[in-house]
Amino acid sequence: MKDGKICVGAIGGAYGVRGELRVKSFCAVPEDIEAYSPLTSEDGQQVFHLALVRQIKNGFAARIVEVATKEQADALKGTQLFAQRGQLPSLPDDEYYHTDLIGLAVLDTGGEELGTVKSVQDHGAGDILEVQRPASSETVLLPFTLAAVPTVDLAAGRIIADPPDGLF
């Protein structure tokens, strides 16, 4: 498993003129982002004590103790919010944090290397693994379903895939 931080949300900018911010939660239960406070920036240099104020379209209006003005809130637009892995719940055997999948080798059922996981995407119809082909900049989108990805072995750092015909 990777370092002790997991991205749980992002700041979308100011919400109003009193220093509130728009926050998008990446948590399975969106409100849980507040329970993981204090959150940090990716480099760990900034610490944010987050309190949700109310739900808004595509996220929450939130307060951060360290932010008092609209200008300070706007300056944080695009900042990703990270929680320590130890704060997050343990996952069932068939669920994974996206960050743990990135960088894993992808092999087919015969052991041939298909590539490595470049990113995990979710456009609403389920997760998709973006697999970068070996020695190439080409990527292939692999559905992250039990049929297409029967085995994820985090300890060995690999995924066994049975992709649909013609995908690779």
What does this structure look like?
This protein is mainly beta. The protein folds into 2 domains: 83 residues, RimM (Elongation Factor Tu (Ef-tu), domain 3, Beta Barrel); 64 residues, SH3 type barrels (Roll). It is 6% helix and 41% strand. The chain has 2 helices and 13 strands; from the N terminus they run ββββββαβαββββββ. The strands form 3 sheets. It has a 6-stranded mixed β-sheet with strand order 11-10-9-8-13-12. The chain is elongated and about 60 Å long.
Rounded average pLDDT: 91
Could you give the order of strands across the largest sheet?
11-10-9-8-13-12
Q: How would you sum up the global shape?
A: elongated
Number of helices: 2
Overall structural class, as computed from helix and strand content, comes to mainly beta
Number of strands: 13
* Helix-residue proportion: under 10%
**N-to-C SSE series?**
EEEEEEHEHEEEEEE
Ranges where pLDDT stays below 50 over 5 or more residues in a row are: none
**Total discrete domains:** 2
CATH architecture classification of the largest domain: Beta Barrel
Span between termini = 27 Å
User: Can you identify the CATH superfamily of the largest domain?
Assistant: RimM
Q: What Rg do the Cα atoms give?
A: 19 Å
Largest sheet composition:
6 strands, mixed
CATH topology of the largest domain: Elongation Factor Tu (Ef-tu), domain 3
- Please give the CATH class of the largest domain: Mainly Beta
Hey, roughly how much beta strand do the residues contain?
Answer: 35-45%
